[in-house]
Specification:
Helix content: 25-40%
Radius of gyration: 24 Å
Number of helices: 15
Oligomer: single chain
CATH topology of the largest domain: Metallo-beta-lactamase, Chain A
CATH architecture of the largest domain: 4-Layer Sandwich
Number of strands: 24
Number of domains: 3
Strand order of the largest sheet: 1-2-3-4-5-6
CATH class of the largest domain: Alpha Beta
CATH superfamily of the largest domain: Ribonuclease Z/Hydroxyacylglutathione hydrolase-like
């Protein structure tokens, strides 16, 4: 028998590969499917079935691609949706995987038709519950994606799914969710690499409630919804456009990129300091590890994309973009910014200062205009900057007009990564006097503008 979890960087997405004898299955696959094909080849087995726990909102699934490449039977949840592939798995349906048995367990709540799958070990005892977005380590699935008017009803269904169906399976059952810490599909997913139903019963705050009503109140809350979710929902039912430029896009010369960039978007995934020193005019700064979290907010779909990145990272960057539905990747800048400069093409720079430098200006020159793009949670935990304009980085594309265009503005995020992204966006909209603050709260030392901390009673 062989069992492994595949983790997708950036999305905090988990998919699973299970094999016994010559049979294998995959649960909640990502779009770049070579990892599953390689595992099947290495273990001398054939992928017989591919399962989905629910319609995913934050990435493009690889179910149709796996079916086309392997001939596997495809099974999805949410039978009321007009899927163009596969068939709906039914509550109680079972499948053999060599000596193992997999059973479908309907666990609605996150979506009306969400499924969990229970895997028995070779002796026939329940072993693993693949819970999708129903139950995470330290959290439960969000119920606000279908609208807050339906959230209380879905939260009630989620309570019943967890307390009446999953927890009775036994404390020793291993929990295998579709996401880990950092995913936007949960608010407080814990950094527990592996967990069990027993651990969650004891440690998950959402499960340590006094009543069904208390659970509904804690779960039926509205969370931040990235705008690209709607597109993922459509792609994962009707099918995504075919990939272009993958697994590796073509190299594009500096002069070619200079001529074509006006009709597309240039994404620069280098470090914030490299971007700040010199970049292709009107390009968007999106550091590689932040692509999955922020591209859907800052980069439009249905437009040609070009990539500027560190040498050797071209394939990884394009793979990360493809996982969240970007398909029209025209190429990457051959030779990077060095080649751009050697071709005699114009570049731009972004003014940068350290957090200590900003504090010195505050103490010696008085008030400075500061745009704080941290989240509300960060400001509560770390301290707020008095008089700063507070707009979380993900809200900037909709609220950027609140930033004064004729005022020297310092953008602060706690590291410089999100600040540079915001600065690049503002520059593309015509803002000129933008300064990125490098460094975090640990370096804040202003005596005239000390951080404001909420008291425990206020929190």
């Amino acid at each position: 028998m062989f069992f492994t979890r595949i983790e997708s960087k950036g999305l905090a997405h988990y998919s699973y590969f299970v094999a016994d004898k010559t049979d294998a299955i995959v649960i909640d696959p990502r779009r770049d499917i070579d990892v599953y094909l390689t595992l099947a080849l290495q273990n001398g087995c054939t992928i017989r079935h591919v399962f989905e726990t629910h319609r995913h909102e934050d990435f493009v699934v690889g179910t149709p691609e796996l079916g086309a490449r392997t001939g596997a039977t495809l099974w999805h949840a949410d039978p009321e949706l007009p899927y163009t592939y596969g068939a709906p798995a039914e509550d109680g349906q079972t499948w053999k995987v060599g000596r193992l048995r997999l059973s479908a367990l309907r666990t609605p709540g996150h979506t009306p038709g969400s499924l969990s799958y229970v895997l028995d070990d070779p002796s026939g005892e329940p072993w693993i519950a693949f819970t999708g977005d129903t139950l995470f380590a330290g959290d439960v699935g969000r119920v606000d994606l279908m609208g807050m008017d339906r959230a209380p009803g879905l939260a009630a269904e989620l309570y019943d799914s967890i307390f009446a169906k999953l927890l009775p399976l036994g404390d020793g059952i291993v929990v295998c969710p579709a996401h880990g810490a950092g995913s936007v599909c949960g608010e407080t997913i814990a950094e527990r690499t592996w967990t069990t139903l027993g651990i969650e019963r004891l440690r998950n705050p959402k499960l340590r409630v006094a009543s069904r009503e208390a659970f509904i109140a804690s779960a039926a809350v509205e969370l931040e919804r990235p705008p690209y979710f709607r597109r993922m929902e459509s792609y994962n039912v009707l099918g995504a456009p075919p990939l272009a430029g993958l697994p590796l896009p073509r190299a594009v010369s500096p002069k070619h990129l200079h001529a074509e960039r006006a009709g597309g978007v240039v994404i620069d995934t280098r470090s914030e300091t490299c971007y700040g020193a010199a970049h292709v005019p009107e390009s968007v700064s999106l550091w590689e590890e932040g692509l999955s979290a922020f591209a859907g907010w800052y980069v439009p779909y249905d437009t040609p994309l070009y990539v500027v990145c560190d040498p050797g990272h071209e394939q990884e960057v394009c793979t990360l973009l493809s996982r969240i539905g970007y398909t029209d990747i025209r190429g990457y800048l051959a030779g990077g910014m060095l080649a751009w400069h050697m071709a005699g093409l114009p570049s731009m720079a972004t003014a940068m200062t350290t957090v200590q430098g900003l504090c010195r200006e505050l103490d010696t020159q008085g008030d400075q205009y500061i745009l704080d793009v941290r989240t509300e949670g960060e400001r509560k935990a770390q301290g707020a900057i008095p008089s700063a304009l507070e707009i979380p980085a993900s809200f900037i594309p909709k609220r950027y007009r609140e930033v004064p265009q004729d005022t020297k503005t310092y953008v602060f995020c706690g590291s410089g990564l999100r600040s540079m992204m915001v600065a690049s966006f503002l520059a593309s909209k015509g803002w000129e006097s933008i300064h990125v603050v490098l460094g975090g709260i640990a370096g804040w030392s202003s005596t005239t503008c000390p951080l404001e901390h909420q008291s425990s009673s206020e929190q």
